Amino acid sequence: MSRPKKSRSVAIDAAREITTGSLAGGLSKVFEFPFDTIKVRMQYSQSLPKPLFESSLDCIVRSYKKDGFLKGFYRGLVPPMFGAAMEISTLFFSYNMAQDFIKLSRGSNLADDLSLPEKLLCGAWGGVCTSFVLTPVELLKCRFQVETLGSKKTSVPQIVRSVIKEAGVRGLWKGEITTLIREAGGSMAWFGNYEALLAYYSKGERDYQYKAWQLMSAGALAGVGYHCLMFPVDTVKSIYQIDELGSKSLMGIAAQIYRDKGVFGFYSGLGVTLCKSIPASAILFLSYEWIKKSLPF
User: Fold this and answer.
1) What one-character-per-residue DSSP string does 2-56 give?
2) 119: which residues sit within 8 A by CB, 6+ positions away?
3) Which terminus of the chain faces fewer neighbouring Cβ atoms within 10 Å, N or C?
4) Using an 8 Å Cβ cutoff, are 25 and 291 in contact?
5) What domains sit in the chain, N to C, each tagged with a CATH number?
6) CA separation, residue 115 to residues 183, 196, 217 (Å)
7) What Rg, from alpha-carbon coordinates, does the chain have?
8) Beta carbons of 38 and 232 less than 8 angstroms apart
9) PROSITE patterns, from UniProt (predicted)?
10) pLDDT digits (tens, 9 = 90+) for 71-99
């Protein structure tokens, strides 16, 4: 990742990553939220004996007809936006702190660069750390996005109270294992693709100044790698978190998807997800780099 010439210390690095990640994460969530709503509804639809929607386009049209644009696609945005700020700041913070740890442990300078395999390992660690922040946010988001399909009116606070009443505070972390697996593998691919393409653009030039289109294309490739690699895990996770009765196990859900829909059932909603992930990831990395460069510290 490009490194502006600023003072480096573990404390300054930490503050910089948290600030930059929070702002970039919240901004990208505003763009991607409508696509994410359709993705979750499609995944839920495919888990039913009779799917609610024939295709992603059908889901978009029916959601719009039922609730209009803002309520149909942006209802419930605020909690995920704050969740995205926490998620991205945690992800970039843990990713860069892992790099600093490796450098300090072997006596290197913080400004030195790591090899791509080392960055992949740091990316996986970043995903593991992020999963603990992300699981409650995604559980509430998935429940909200699906419950609004019916006539029942609900709110995020109501869902929080319902989950805690059913399973205690620990219930908010339902699906942690699948989220951890998805985030570890997905973040490794996310950062790996991004770093690899930037390395190709810079051709080894240490102080290379990346152009906006290069940052965006690297970010877009990062989004593709993340979702194409771990989308089946995400599908199982979403259905597991939506199941309020807790009657389905992870393996049971996977077996049902394969039995009813085959391998392609695990990729229901991938198209609309890539439509949001490619530009959203491009915007995220571009805003991350620009915000980081603009910080006064």
Assistant:
1) ---S----HHHHHHHHHHHHHHHHHHHHHHHHHHHHHHHHHHHHHTSSS-S-SSH
2) 99, 191, 192, 195
3) C
4) no
5) 10-294 (1.50.40.10)
6) 21, 10, 21
7) 20
8) no
9) SOLCAR (PS50920)
10) 888 877 877 788 788 889 999 999 999 99
